[in-house]
C-alpha cells in the first residue's frame, strides 16, 4: 500500500470545503434576508463548470435579493450535495490509487415506489421555512410545524427514508431551541441534514439501490461497533469470494438495535447477536458460506440467516494479506457520496509508531498516518496500548480533512508470541475474564429492566 499518497496534498479539496463552509454560514442567520451574500456566490462558483451552473447562479442571485422560492432553495441544496460528492469521489480515488484496488462497476438503482407529491411538497415547504429562519431563528413553533408532516410521511413505506431523517432532525432542533440562545451551532451537521432532506423531497431521488443475490464464501475482516445512548450498530466488513470465480468484492453486513442506556460495553453484543449470526463467525475466526444472500449494488448484505451457514476457519489477517488487495470496492450511490461516509478496509504492516497511546500515528518512510484510537469500542479486547505496540493492523481508512486509520484488529507481541487482537473478538461470546464480567453485568441489568417492564404491563 502506498501510504505516501495519503499524505500528499489533494488539489481542490480545501477550496471545495471552504465553499460549503461559506454557504453554511449563510444558513446560520437564514436565507430570508441573507447578510453574508458572499457565501452564496462561493457555492455558485464551486459548481460553475457543471450542468448545475445556471440554476445555482440564479438561485444564489434570487436568494441574495430576498426573492428566492422553494425551487431556488432546492438548487442550493443540490449544489451543496454535489460539492461534497466531488470531495468524496476525490478522496476515494486517492485511496484506490494508494491501495491499487480495482474499482467496482456502477449499477442502476431500482425505480422508486409510488410517492405522494403532496407529502413531498409539504416536507419541502417546512425545510424551506427552516432555511429562511436559519439556525439562529429556530423556535418551538417552527419545529412543531413538522409534526403532522412527519407523521404522514411515516405512514408511507416509500417515504420512510425521508421521514426518519426529518424525525431525527426535528428532534435535534427542538432540543436546541431557541436558536438565538445557542452558544455553538453544529453548522456542518445541520447543513448536511437540511440539504439531504431537500433532495429527498424530489420525486425519484430516494430510489433504492438495486438488489441482487450472491453465493460464495464470506471472509470477515473486522467489526465496527457504534454505540448511542438509545441504539447500537455493528457493521461487519468482509471480503466475498463469489462461487462463480469472479473477482472477490468488499461487502458489509449491518445490524442496528435499540438499547437501554444502562447496557454498555460488552453487554451490547447480547442485543446484537440474535439478529446477526455472522457475529459468531467473527468471534470464532471462521468464514461463512452464503447461498443466494440478498445484496445491494453498494455492497450491503441484507442478512438472512437461512441463506448462510458457518464455514471453515478463516484468519482475518490471512484474508487481509492475500485476498483483500484483489477485492473490488462497491460504487457508492450519488446521494450517499459524502466524505463522512468513507470507511475503506485496508491492511498495514511494517510501520513505525509515533506519539502516545491516546494519539498515535503509524509512520512509513517519511509519511505519517494518524490513528483514531478513540474509535476503539470498549466492548472488546482491543486497546490503544495494543495498537501502540502492534506490527500489523487491519483498519478502516477515514477522511476528515486528512486521512486517518480506525483500527479493527492488530497483531502484537504477547509473551514473545505474535497474537491477533480484534475489536470484535467478543461479538459471538467470550471466555475472557473481562468480557465475561461485563456480559454478566449486562445480563443482570437486562433482567431488572424486563422485570420492571413486566410490572408496568400488569398494571
Lay out the secondary structure:
Elements: H1 4-7, H2 13-29, H3 37-46, H4 53-64, H5 70-99, H6 117-133, H7 140-144, H8 147-154, H9 160-174, H10 187-200, E1 211-227, E2 231-242, E3 249-258, H11 268-272, H12 278-284, E4 286-296, E5 300-301, E6 308-313, H13 316-322, E7 344-349, E8 352-354, E9 361-364, E10 367-370, H14 384-388, E11 390-399, E12 403-414, E13 417-422, H15 433-458
Parallel strand pairs: 3-5
Antiparallel strand pairs: 1-2, 1-4, 2-3, 4-6, 7-11, 8-9, 9-10, 11-12, 12-13
Helix pairs in contact: 2-3, 2-5, 3-4, 3-5, 4-5, 5-10, 6-8, 6-10, 8-9, 9-10
Can you walk through the features of this model?
- Strand 8 (352-354) and strand 9 form a beta hairpin.
- Helix 2 (13-29) packs antiparallel against helix 5 (70-99), helix 6 packs antiparallel against helix 8 and helix 9 packs antiparallel against helix 10.
- The chain is 40% helix and 22% strand.
- The chain has 15 helices and 13 strands.
Percent helix, as a range, is 25-40%
CA-based gyration radius: 24 Å
Q: SSE order in H/E notation? A: HHHHHHHHHHEEEHHEEEHEEEEHEEEH
What is the count of DSSP helices, taking H or I runs of 4+ residues? Answer: 15
Mean pLDDT: 90
Q: How much of the residues is beta strand, in percent?
A: 15-25%
Tell me the distance between the termini.
62 Å
Q: What structural class do helix, strand and pairing data support? A: alpha+beta
Strand order of the largest sheet: 5-3-2-1-4-6
Oligomer: single chain
Reported for the largest beta sheet, the result is:
6 strands, mixed
The strand count comes to 13
Uncertain residue segments: none
Shape: globular
Amino acid at each position: 500500500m502506498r501510504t505516501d499518497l495519503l499524505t500528499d496534498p489533494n488539489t481542490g479539496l480545501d477550496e471545495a470545503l471552504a465553499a460549503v463552509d461559506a454557504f453554511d454560514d449563510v444558513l446560520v442567520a437564514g436565507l430570508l434576508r441573507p447578510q453574508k451574500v458572499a457565501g452564496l456566490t462561493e457555492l455558485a462558483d464551486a459548481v460553475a463548470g457543471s450542468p448545475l451552473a445556471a440554476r445555482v447562479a440564479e438561485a444564489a442571485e434570487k436568494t441574495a435579493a430576498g426573492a428566492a422560492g422553494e425551487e431556488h432553495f432546492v438548487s442550493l441544496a443540490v449544489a451543496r450535495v454535489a460539492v461534497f460528492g466531488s470531495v468524496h469521489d476525490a478522496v476515494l480515488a486517492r485511496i484506490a490509487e494508494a491501495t491499487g484496488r480495482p474499482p467496482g462497476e456502477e449499477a442502476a438503482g431500482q425505480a422508486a415506489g409510488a410517492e405522494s407529491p403532496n407529502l413531498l411538497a409539504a416536507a419541502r415547504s417546512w425545510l424551506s421555512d427552516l432555511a429562511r429562519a436559519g439556525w439562529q431563528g429556530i423556535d418551538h413553533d417552527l419545529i412543531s410545524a413538522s409534526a403532522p408532516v412527519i407523521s404522514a410521511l411515516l405512514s408511507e413505506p416509500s417515504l420512510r427514508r425521508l421521514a426518519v431523517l426529518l424525525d431525527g432532525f426535528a428532534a435535534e432542533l427542538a432540543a436546541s431551541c431557541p436558536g438565538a440562545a445557542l452558544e455553538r451551532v453544529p453548522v456542518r451537521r445541520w447543513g448536511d441534514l437540511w440539504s439531504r432532506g431537500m433532495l429527498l423531497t424530489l420525486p425519484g431521488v430516494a430510489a433504492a439501490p438495486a438488489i441482487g443475490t450472491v453465493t460464495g464464501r464470506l471472509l470477515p475482516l473486522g467489526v465496527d461497533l457504534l454505540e448511542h445512548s438509545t441504539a447500537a450498530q455493528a457493521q461487519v466488513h468482509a471480503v466475498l469470494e463469489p462461487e462463480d470465480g469472479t473477482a472477490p468484492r468488499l461487502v458489509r453486513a449491518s445490524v442496528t438495535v435499540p438499547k437501554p442506556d444502562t447496557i454498555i460495553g460488552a453487554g451490547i453484543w447480547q442485543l446484537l447477536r440474535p439478529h446477526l449470526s455472522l457475529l459468531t463467525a467473527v468471534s470464532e475466526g471462521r468464514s461463512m458460506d452464503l447461498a443466494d444472500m440478498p445484496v445491494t449494488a453498494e455492497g450491503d448484505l441484507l442478512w438472512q440467516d437461512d441463506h448462510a451457514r458457518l464455514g471453515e476457519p478463516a484468519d482475518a489477517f490471512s484474508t487481509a494479506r492475500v485476498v483483500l488487495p484483489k477485492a473490488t470496492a462497491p460504487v457508492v450511490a450519488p446521494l450517499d457520496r459524502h466524505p463522512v461516509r468513507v470507511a475503506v478496509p485496508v491492511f498495514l504492516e511494517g510501520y513505525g509508531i509515533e506519539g502516545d497511546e491516546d494519539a498515535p500515528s503509524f509512520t512509513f518512510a517519511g509519511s505519517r498516518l494518524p490513528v483514531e484510537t478513540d474509535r476503539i469500542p470498549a466492548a472488546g479486547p482491543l486497546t490503544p496500548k495494543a495498537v501502540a505496540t502492534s506490527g500489523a493492523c487491519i483498519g478502516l481508512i477515514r477522511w476528515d480533512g486528512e486521512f486517518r486509520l480506525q483500527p479493527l484488529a492488530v497483531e502484537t507481541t504477547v509473551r514473545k508470541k505474535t497474537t491477533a487482537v480484534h475489536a470484535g473478538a467478543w461479538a459471538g461470546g467470550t471466555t475472557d475474564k473481562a468480557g465475561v464480567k461485563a456480559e454478566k453485568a449486562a445480563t443482570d441489568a437486562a433482567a431488572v429492566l424486563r422485570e420492571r417492564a413486566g410490572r408496568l404491563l400488569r398494571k
